[in-house]
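Incident review: delayed structure delivery

Summary: a single-chain prediction request sat in the queue longer than the usual turnaround. Root cause was a stuck worker, restarted by the on-call engineer. No data loss occurred. The affected request and its eventual output are reproduced below so the record is complete for anyone auditing the incident later.

Affected input:
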Amino acid sequence: MTEPVIEAANVSKVLGTGPAQVRALKGVSLTLSSGKLTMLMGPSGSGKTTLLSILGCMLAPTGGTVRICGTSTTGARPDELAKIRRQHIGFVFQSYHLFSTLTAAENVQLALEVRGEQGPKAIAKAREVLDSVGLSTKMASFPRELSGGEQQRVAIARAIVAEPSAILADEPTAALDASNGQTTMAILSAIAKERDRAVLVVTHDQRLFGFADRILYIEDGSLTREELADPKAMSVQQPS
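Output delivered after worker restart:
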């Protein structure tokens, strides 16, 4: 059996101290596997972004364990977490997070430069991945010259150019119209299937369910149920 790309076991997270203390996550367990697109649904304040941050090694859990491609993050120093993140995780955000003074190609190349890849090879990889998301004619365009959908595709290209094992996307379609949202999800689905990556998408939009292999629901810091997206295999599982 293939080892999960990301595995969380009984993960908890406490934020704040004293009267302001909040238990953001309460014993969350899940696995993310290659070739699958998983959606994470839940109301505001349910713990979605906190969970995404922990799975992406941007935040350490208070309790429980996280393994990324077999490597445990328990006890890892910030620099060690950063190394795991650079090697295995690509992020896509709602607000794109592009550098306004860099072209589309330069924004993508930047993800390679922080990993020590520069020169003609990095340029070629950036151009190739931009072409794969339909932006072959926008290489030299600045973010202000791109539509919201095009900016998000640049952000996706940047996330996948270093060939990470997992893509974590936080509300990637929230700032887009329906058509561009569908295009963005189709690209993320193709990344899971064609590039054999684990993809986790946080979303509120139920119209996107058709792109998912499974849907996880979180509320008050706990996973409440899981639905398999295939109607013929649809099931509801209560967490143990």
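Verification: The first helix runs from residue 48 to 55.
Action items: add queue-age alerting; document worker restart procedure.
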